[in-house]
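User: Fold this one for me? It's Single-stranded DNA-binding protein.
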Amino acid sequence: MLNQVTLIGRLTHDPVVKTMEDGKKVSDIQIAVQRAFKNMDGLYETDFISCSLWQGSAEIIENYCKKGSMVAIRGRLQTRKLELANNKIISVIELVGERVIHLSSTFKTSPSCPEEDA
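Assistant: Here's what I get for Single-stranded DNA-binding protein.
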């Protein structure tokens, strides 16, 4: 079995790294990914994909990227259950990033941005 996804898109907000109780770092981001085809109205639609980046990848994206930065994220799809206020449980699919590459020509804090394996 194989669960591998690569997405290229733009950050919808500035990334923020949170430190979990166990000391691990995570950044929950969202990227806007334009579809490769036009809809019935002749427009390109955009999907907004939630992504979780851990440890080094989270730090890289926080230090070198900002809202609007174009990034490539390789990772795996993962589902998790969320309980809503009315006790209804829904499944959410998100991308857990394993590798991030910064593709934009603008930088948040430094002119050189490495790529990082998670």
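One thing worth pointing out: The chain has one domain: 5-117.
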